[in-house]
Amino acid sequence: MSSATLTAAAVANAARRGNPLGRRLLIAGAWLVFLLFLVLPLLVVLSQALKLGFGTFFAAIFEPDAIAALKLTLIAVGISVPLNLVFGVAAAWCVSKYEFPGKSVLITLIDLPFSVSPVIAGLIYVLMFGSQGWFGPWLSDHDIQIVFAVPGIVLATLFVTFPFVARELIPLMQEQGTQEEEAARLLGANGWQMFWHVTLPNIKWGLIYGVVLCTARAMGEFGAVSVVSGHIRGLTNTLPLHVEILYNEYNHVAAFSVASLLLVMALVILLLKQWSENRLSRLRHSDAEE
Amino acid sequence: MSRRTSPVIPGFGLTLGYTLVYLSLLVLIPLAAMFIHAAQLTWEQFWNIISAPRVLAALKLSFGTALAAALLNGLIGTLLAWVLVRYSFPGRKIIEAMIDLPFALPTAVAGIALTALYAPNGPIGQLAGMIGLKIAYTPLGITLALTFVTLPFVVRTLQPVLADIPKEVEEAAACLGAKPLQVFRYVLLPALLPAWLTGFALAFARGVGEYGSVIFIAGNMPMKTEILPLLIMVKLDQYDYHGATAIGVLMLVVAFVLLLLINLLQRRISTAST
C-alpha cells in the first residue's frame, strides 16, 4: 500500500469515527441505557428476593407448589421445543430446497404467531376445546380435558413458540443452497444419509440457536398459558404463573425468589445463545472465505 | 415435477405435507375458529361490543403505548446498534450479549421487576415522585414496560445492515467534504430506514399484544390503564366468549392493517432509494 492511500485511509477513518466528544457521548448514552434498562431490573429482582435472607429465599423456591410449577414448565418446554424443532426443519427444508407457487405466502403464515397477541393464542384454544367450544361437548363426553389442564398449556406454548426454529433455519438454508445435497445424492447417498451427513452438520448451529430462543419463550410464556391454565395451584401452574399468584397475594419476597430462579434460567439461555451465535458467525465467516 | 428446481433432492412431498398439516392444525384452524365464532355475531352486536367506551379506551391505550414504545425503541435501538457496530469500547461484549435479555427473561419477571423499580416507593419511582412524576400505574409505566420487552427488535434488525454498509461509501462522502451529520443524514439514513421500519413494526406488533409485563405495572383501571389483551382476559373470566372473540378479531384486524401500511411504506422507501 502506498503512503498516499494510507493517509487517505487515515482521514477517512477519522471521519468515520466522528469527533471524539460525540463518540464518547454516544458510548456513554449506550452505557446509560444498558444500566438503566437492563441491569437495574435484574438487580431489583435479586435484591427483593434476598431481602429477608437466604432462608426465606430457598424456602420459597423449594416449596411444593413451586416445585410442581417448575415440573410443569419443564414438561411444557420438553414437549413444545422438540415438536417445533421437527416442524422447523421440515418447513425450512421445503421452503429452501424447492421452488413452488405460494412459497412466500407459506413463509408469511409460518411467522403469523409472532404477530398474534399471546392472549389471543390462548383464546383460540378455549374456543376450540373449551366447554362451549367446537369440540367441547365431544371432549366432555369422552372425559378428556384440554383447556384448564396440561394439554392446553402445551398447545398454547406450541403456538407462541411455533416460528422460532423455522425462522432461524430458513435464511440459513436458503443461503447454503442445494449444491452439497445434490453432490451427496449423485455420489449415491440416500435421502437420510444426505440429511444426516450433509445437511445437519451445515445447519447445526442455526438449529441450536433457534432451539435456544424457542426454549426461552416456552419457559417464560405468560399470557397464552394464563388464558388456558385455569390457575390451579400445584396442578396447572407454570413458574411464571406461580410468580403472578405469589405477587398478587402480596407475598413479594416469595414472588421475587421464584422470579430470580427464572432469571438465572434466562441468563443461562443468554450464555447458550451467545455461544451458538458465535459458532454460527464463525461458520458464516469460513464460508465467506472459501 | 416441473415445480422443483432440484429433482435430485428428495423429501419435497414429505416436508411440505408435514409443514402444511402442522401449520393448519396448530395455527390456521384455531385462528379460523375465532373468526367463525365472531361471524355468529350480527354486525350490530359486533359493533356494540367494540364501540363500548371501555373497549375504545383500551384500544387507544394499547395502540398508543405500543406506538410510543416502538418510537422510543427507534431512538434507543438506533443508538445501541450504532455504538455496538461502530465503536470498540470497554464493556461492548457484555452489552452486546445482554441486549437479548428482554427476550430471554419471562415477561412476568420483567413485569414485577419494573413495577418494583417504578412504583412510587421504588428506587426510580421515588426520584420521579420528587419532580411530581408518576410512572407506575400510568400509561407512562406501560410504555416503559413495552419499551423493555421490545428493546432488542430495532437493535437486532439494524446491526447487520449497519455492519454491511460498505466503508467506502461513507469514506467517499467524508472525502468529498460531508460533515458527520450530513453523512448520517444523506448516506446512512436512507440505507438504514427499511431495516429500521422492520424493527419498528416488530416492536409495535409485539407491544400491542403484550400482556405479561404490562399487567403488573399498569394498575389495570378500566378506562384509564386497562390494555386490550387484559380486556379479553376480563371478558373470558366472565364467560363472555362473544365479547372476548369480538375484541380479539378487532385487535388482529387493526394490527394487520397497520403492519400492512408499514410494509407498503417500507416498499416505497426501498424502491425510492434504489
Structural features, described:
The complex is a heterodimer of chains A (290) and B (274). Chain A has 290 residues and is mainly α. Chain A contains 14 helices and no strands. Chain A has helices at residues 3-17, 20-49, 53-61, 64-97, 103-111, 118-129, 136-141, 150-160, 164-176, 179-186, 191-220, 223-229, 239-248, 252-289. In chain A, helix 3 packs across helix 14 (252-289). Chain A is globular, with a radius of gyration of 24 Å. The two termini of chain A are 24 Å apart. By secondary structure, chain B is mainly alpha-helical. Chain B has one domain (51-223, 250-273): MetI-like fold (Orthogonal Bundle), CATH 1.10.3720. Helices cover 78% and strands 0% of the residues of chain B. Chain B is globular, with a radius of gyration of 23 Å. The model of chain B has no long low-confidence stretch (mean pLDDT 89). The chains are: A mainly alpha (290), B mainly alpha (274). The interface between A and B is large, with 101 and 94 residues.
Q: Cα distance, first to last residue of chain B? A: 36 Å
How much helix, percentage-wise, in residues of chain B? over 70%
Number of helices of chain A: 14
What profile does the largest beta sheet of chain A have?
Answer: none
Radius of gyration of chain A: 24 Å
The gyration radius over C-alpha positions of chain B equals 23 Å
Could you tell me the mean pLDDT of chain A? Answer: 87
**Proportion in β-strands of chain A:** under 5%
Shape of chain B: globular
Spell the H/E element sequence of chain B.
HHHHHHHHHHHHHH
CATH class of chain B: Mainly Alpha
Largest interface: A-B, 101 and 94 residues
Give a nutshell description of this structure.
The complex is a heterodimer of chains A (290) and B (274). With 290 residues, chain A is mostly helical. Chain A has 14 helices and no strands.
Describe the secondary-structure layout.
The complex is a heterodimer of chains A (290) and B (274).
Chain A: H1 3-17, H2 20-49, H3 53-61, H4 64-97, H5 103-111, H6 118-129, H7 136-141, H8 150-160, H9 164-176, H10 179-186, H11 191-220, H12 223-229, H13 239-248, H14 252-289
Chain B: H1 12-39, H2 43-50, H3 53-86, H4 92-98, H5 101-104, H6 107-118, H7 123-130, H8 139-149, H9 151-164, H10 167-175, H11 180-209, H12 212-218, H13 228-237, H14 241-273
